[in-house]
Input
Amino acid sequence: MNLRVKKPVYALMAVFLITSITVSHSQAAMCVGALKEPTEVDRGYEALVNEFAAAWKQQQSNALSLELDPILKDPSEGPEKKKVLQKLGFTFKDGVMAGPELRKLIENYNTYLNELGIPVKERILPAITLVRDTPTGKEFQYVALGVDPWPKEAGYRIYRFGVDAFNIPIKDMMKAHRAGRFPILAYHDVSHFASFAKNTGYMRAVRKTMGALPKVPKGSSFYSRLFMMIEALSLGNPKKIEVMKKTFLTPAIKNGPGWLRLQEFQSHYASLKEEKIVKQTKLMAEKFDSLVIDFGAANFRSYERDNAFSSSAYTYGGKINIAESHVIRFLMAEPGVGFQPMILRSNFAGISGWNLGGLVKAYEKLATDPNALDEQIGTALGNPSWKLEGGPHTTGKEVVLQLMREELSKAEFLLWNSSQIPVSEWVSTVLSAEAMNLNSKPAVILRDVIGANSQLYKKMTNDYNLNADQQ
Output
């Protein structure tokens, strides 16, 4: 493995495939700058890795049988995602997707980053997670294969996703992040590797920010922001500015680029008639996902985004449920307890092609049965008696049209403004150890699209866990 390093390097990364293949200790020793014969302890850990790799071989095979079609159809830079996966050793042949063994995946990843001229100290590298029980609790070690030596002591075992726990406690995970590693735990995590390899500016920014991170204050919302950044971040694609100008209806965009307030989008859509609103919603449902870049692993992985995210929200052919039209399943980090369910959208900010398409489905259904969604609308409005009391919306169709106006305004606001903010600025702003600067552009986008009073926005901006230790 040609890593071109002379001393231990710390880095970040995520999981994926694992299968048995050995790497010579002469190579590993060269990476850490010390040629020596492997000890019995070393050999024991190598055997554990091979066992770990073999256990994942079947999981990889099962997963890859589901991956191919979503990748080929992914409107969010699907061809580019496929190319970087090929660089990592994946093959696409005769309708079958196959993947490399773990050590080969890591070797391919570093070889590709070598070709791009990215120093190892600026990379996010994969790490095997070791754990042992001590009188004071579990003790974790993170080993970047081919870069770091094994612990001198025997007695560690490989931490197994779904066996030991759903995930590593966040306090111990922070040790890996600060050291520049991302633990290898699950097949999902190959999407971290692929995103880092494709979006190297993003990788470098995360590596630099986490490497310099001071202690996180007690009760900080940092952990929620970290999880959003590495799992759920998608931004408008700056290469699609001209497409946005042709697609969006807000007049001020034609004079861009440049920052525009949400109110400018809302004012324009409030003035449009029903026919225009419905037509534009259909167009944006088709175009939205082609206008974004996926950075977070849960979005980057086409299959996961299409299935896990869309299953509980509006979908083109799925159930119509207005109460779910603005939410989607997500996992939010909590200090000390791993990951807990939260509500979020695939692009982190409340808009997606799925939901826009779902609003079109709702509109079409109400055209044939005006009362079909009364119960769902009551749930969405938080008022089961909404029809009897009257108010701003007296029919289900009016409710759906208003949701269309809101979604279209926020979709344009989000894509237009986020496409003009460098991803490095997103990373440094969102991953501040202190409270996020609420006047920053990333914070304003989050506030205006998610909502200042929403549970999610509060999770990302407020002190919410007063019992958390500094980590």
